[in-house]
Amino acid sequence: FIDVASRNVSEEVCGTGHETYTINSSSILGKYSRAAVAVDNGECSKVGRIILEKNGTTMDATLAAAICNGVMNAHSMGIGGGCVITIYSKKRNKREKAPLAANST
User: Which residues make up the binding site for L-glutamate (predicted)?
Assistant: First the structure.
C-alpha cells in the first residue's frame, strides 16, 4: 500500500522484503496537461524538459534524456543497449498489438 500522508511505500509494493521507500514528489498522481519527462536521474529529466521547452520534438527530448541517463547511470545502462518506447498519438487513437505472426506458444 501507499500511505499518502507520509508518502511511504510499503514492502508489499516494492517486493523487497526489507526495504521501504519514500516518495519525494509534490504529486502522487503527477497529472500533466502538456508533457512530462521522467528518467532515473533528475538532471536528465531536466534535459528532456529543456528540449521540449525549446520546441524540440518528443523524440528529441526522449533521446536527449536517455543519452544523459546512460552517461549519468553508466553502471546500470549505457549507449548500445536496447530500448522500448511507447508512443501515444491522440490523432491516431490506436492500441498496441502483437505482430500478426505471434501466437500463444
Answer: 95
- Enter the pTM of the model: 0.53
In sequence order, what DSSP letters do the residues of 58-70 get, joined into one string? Answer: HHHHHHHHHHHHH
95 lies in a domain?
no
Instruction: Kindly state the cell numbers that stand for 13.
Output: 509494493
3-state helix, strand, coil in the chain (%, to 5): 30, 5, 65
**What mean pLDDT comes out for the span 62-77?**
86
Angle at alpha carbon of residue 78, lines to 49 and 15, rounded to 5°: 85
Contact indicator for 17, 44 with CB cutoff of 8 Å: no
Contact between 22 and 7 under an 8 Å Cβ cutoff? The reply is: yes
Domain span including residue 48: 37-79
Judge if 44 and 18 occupy the same domain. no
Return the closest-CA partner of residue 23 out of 37, 47, 35, 7: 7
What mean pLDDT comes out for the span 49-76? 89
Q: How many domains is the chain partitioned into structurally?
A: 2
Is 95 labelled a binding residue?
yes
